[in-house]
Amino acid sequence: MTARPLAALGRPHPHDVLLAGGGLATGVLLWALGLQGGPPLIGLPASSTLLALAVMAAAELLRRTAPMTALALAVPALALDFCTGTLVATVLMFTDVVYAAVLYGPPGAVRRIPLCSEVLTVLATVATAAVWHVPQVVLVGIGIALLTVAPAGTGLVIRNHRDAAQSARLRAEQTALLAEMDRTQAVAGERARMARELHDLVANHLSAIAIHATAAQTIDDPAATRAALGVIRENSVQGLAEMRRLIGLLRDAQATGDEPAATPTLDGLEALVEQARTNGAASGLAFVLDDARRTAGPGSSGGPDGGRPPAPVELAAYRIVQESLTNALKHAAPGEVRVRIAHDPAGTLSVAVRSPYADGPGPRAPGSGAGLVGMRERIALLGGEFDAGPTDGSDGTVWLVRAALPAAGEEGRR
Fold first, then answer.
1. First to last CA, the chain
2. Distances (CA, A) of 391 to 333, 356, 361, 388, 403
3. Cα distances (angstroms) measured from residue 274 to each of 76, 278, 318
4. 252 — pLDDT class (breaks 50, 70, 90)
5. DSSP letters of 133-178?
């Protein structure tokens, strides 16, 4: 056992000061009244009892701040006390020092001190029995055990309970921290999902409104202006309906009594492309839907086994086509915009949108750049592949958006 350097000792705990002061005062009182265990041995003066008492009181001051130093002082003080008559106050303070050494000492003390106490008790009892062959030797062993084993065992039990409680608190704090992290991630994920939905729902209609409003301002033709205003009104009404649907999804359907509208599916692609044709006619854009699923045979509107792909996959494919058409309205050069959707034999739903690449001064309507980010996020969440950018084709440079989504249902993956 190594004691802490005296220079490194901290201020004694107030409770330890009370214990040390009370023990010292009690011992002095007992000594003054002559209430000692017996006369001094080996010729030591009677005042040596007070020295042992003072050293033991000093050990009590260090029981919490330097428990091993306190134990190192208490052992010789107890030996001196036994040789000078024995004061009960000194003995009681020793038991408290042993208890504190186990409770507040380093981890090694938890193992060594109880073991040393048991070995000391056995050796002292055997040595006493070898010298005095009397039945009272058993009482000597019990007394030594009360001074060493009992306080060490008590300190061990309390320390184990304290460590267990601390571990439980740490686990509770870790659980709360993990729960907070999960909640934060869930909130961030929900915010990102809402941002993608809001962008995909509104951007298409607002882009068409901006393009036709610009045309109505620049073209001095009453008929063209009326047509542009008609498209603006149609997109405004549809955009408002989409916003109401989104609000319905965000609100509690049971509390309001309203059921949110159905999630868009691939069956609505024809209407989506038809709307793009109307919005892009003034910009010289022609939109074509090539749905290769319809040529795969009867009942092939969904996955390769004849069933529909999972709902998240359908929604992601629909939103990718919707955002790609919106980008084409804003950025594409006059020409044909082709949308192709097909199922691969491996059970992958592939989406490709090809539009004429325009290297012009700017888009027809302003954009935030969040569309491509949202499409990448959607595909990444479903474990698919996504690619978008200019590429060289037979008819010149085109802007190509490609996505591959795992469309096989649970039965198809088994």
1. 64
2. 14, 10, 19, 9, 15
3. 100, 6, 14
4. low
5. -STTHHHHHHHHHHHTHHHHHHHHHHHHHHHHHHHHHHHHHHHHHH
Number of residues written out for the chain: 414
Distance CA 243, CA 237 (A): 10
Q: How far is Cα 113 from Cα 147, in angstroms, rounded to an integer? A: 13
Put the strands of the sheet holding 335-343 in their side by side order.
285-291, 335-343, 348-356, 396-406, 385-393
Which regions of 216-371 does DSSP assign to beta strands (E)?
285-291, 335-343, 348-356
Please give the class, per CATH, of domain 178-413.
alpha beta
Q: How far apart are CA 92 and CA 80, in angstroms?
A: 15
Tell me the C-alpha distance between 83 and 46, whole Å: 10
Q: 89-98, 206-215, 263-272, 364-373 — which is least confidently predicted?
A: 364-373
Q: 392 in helix, strand or coil? A: strand
Q: Could you tell me if 378 and 319 are in contact, meaning their C-beta atoms sit under 8 angstroms apart?
A: yes
Contact 55, 71 (CB under 8 A): no
H/E stretch holding 402: strand 396-406
SS (H, E, C) 302-328: CCCCCCCCCHHHHHHHHHHHHHHHHHH
Q: For residues 207, 320, 279 and 290, what is the CA-based torsion angle, rounded to 10 degrees? A: 170
Contact 224, 346 (CB under 8 A): no
* Dist. CA 75–CA 101, nearest whole Å: 12
Residue extents of the structural domains in the chain = 6-171, 178-413
Residue labelled with tokens 């309205």: 329
Question: The whole model's pTM is what?
Answer: 0.49
* Structure confidence by residue, pLDDT tens digits, 254-268: 444 444 455 678 888
Distance CA 346, CA 304 (A): 8
Inter-axis angle of helices 149-218 and 269-280, to 10 degrees? Answer: 50
Give the bridge partners for 356, in sequence order.
398
Q: What is the mean pLDDT of residues 210-229?
A: 74
Instruction: Write out pLDDT tens, residues 223-239.
Output: 777 777 777 777 777 77
